[in-house]
Write a structure and sequence with these properties.
CATH architecture of the largest domain: 3-Layer(aba) Sandwich
Bound molecules: NADP nicotinamide-adenine-dinucleotide phosphate
Number of strands: 9
CATH topology of the largest domain: Rossmann fold
CATH class of the largest domain: Alpha Beta
Number of domains: 2
Number of helices: 12
Radius of gyration: 21 Å
Shape: globular
Structural class: alpha/beta
Strand content: 5-15%
Strand order of the largest sheet: 3-2-1-4-5-6
Largest sheet: 6 strands, parallel
Order of helices and strands: EHEHEHEHEHEEEHEHHHHHH
Length: 310
Amino acid sequence: MTDVYFDRIALIGIGLIGSSIARAVKAKGLAGTVAISSRSRETLARARKLDLGTEYIHEAGKAVEGADLVIISVPVGASGKVAEEIAPYLKPGAIVTDVGSTKGSVVAQMLPHMPKGVHFIPGHPIAGTEHSGPDAGFAELFQGRWCILTPIQGTDKDAKHRLAAFWRALGSRVDEMDAEHHDKVLAIVSHLPHIIAYNIVGTADDLETVTESEVIKYSASGFRDFTRLAASDPTMWRDVCLHNKDAILEMLARFSEDLAYLQRAIRWGDGEKLFNLFTRTRAIRRSIIDAGQDTSAPNFGRPLDAGQED
Ligand code: NAP
């Protein structure tokens, strides 16, 4: 318990991720005081109404005063500005972490502001939904999901151990890798799928020969599975694209090549190529289920009246 218990936690940003952490901390009794800060007074008032913490402080600097653990949960493009704002108020020995979906850029933005004696350990919980704001969070969000820590060289072992223990107490499994590798892995498993989803939903919306009502009416044939990703927060995803540019462009180039290969196979009626690819990809779905990262129920476990795929 001593490893995971903090006297004072400060949560800077209280949207989907920040409020899920707040709920889990409260449910599991992992802190004495939970000070919450958000950019807007409206969101902060909502957090108070939802009873997510014990103190509600508009100024991020004031909220981190005396905190043993500071967790920054804002769009990645805002992390440098927040780090600069809180830096003068951080307690020596405090652990500062974040939850941003890109890591190289967050380190570049935040590290220069971190005072000596503060343990800055970037992190990224691989858990989320397409919803945002303090109402969207839930205590079980991190249950069984991975949290990746990307410690910088020379990180204090004890601080890292405490942060990892904290994430485990929230229900996560914890992995460690460097920021550059994280950004490559996430470009393929998360960033590219979201970009493809935004693109395909945009294309369907633009089609002149198919009406919008037909797109909606027949969406259970596959289209709707992309719309969940494409309904994700526009600010968050704008920032992810701008802050993991190199890795995303590399993955997009590979994706375009593979798509051209598929296009050629369809054009030339190469059924064998298509069948082989579709067989290989089906096995990946089975591996995800075996790894406990999704349900084996057909159609993601949706009730039958939610429609079947074609
Ligand atoms: P969210 O629900 O939209 O909440 C964002 C929070 O950040 C709010 O408290 C908001 O404050 C604040 N904020 C927004 N813009 C800001 C700015 N320019 N400066 C300072 N504060 C600002 O977002 P979220 O989904 O929790 O995402 C937070 C972080 O977690 C992002 O870095 C994201 O990459 C990462 N992440 C997200 C997911 C996911 O699935 N959503 C999963 C893993 C990691 P106000 O409301 O007061 O303006």
